[in-house]
Design goal:
Elements: E1 2-8, E2 15-21, E3 24-30, H1 39-52, E4 59-63, E5 69-74
Parallel strand pairs: 1-3
Antiparallel strand pairs: 1-5, 2-3, 4-5
């Protein structure tokens, strides 16, 4: 499945929240890692894997590597 994610790097704590919008659900993922050298992207993938209860390798960012709006694929 593919989901929309809005990234919030550099937060005080890591958490995943769901936000309902007119265009569907968006997962807001806050992570403590800074947006440098892919660290925040890895932390987002880790947080979503824990949230959905799947292995880390089952989650990958497929679009939006450099921006806050991302598309993430989760293999369940």
């Amino acid at each position: 499945m593919r989901i929309k994610v809005r990234a919030k790097p550099g937060a005080k704590r890591t958490e995943v929240n769901v936000e309902s919008r007119l265009d569907g659900e968006t997962y807001v993922v806050s992570v403590t890692e800074p947006p440098r050298a892919g660290r925040a992207n890895r932390a987002i993938e880790d947080a979503l894997a824990r949230h959905f209860g799947v292995p880390r390798g089952a989650v990958r960012i497929v679009a939006g590597f450099m921006g806050r709006e991302k598309t993430v694929e989760i293999i369940m």
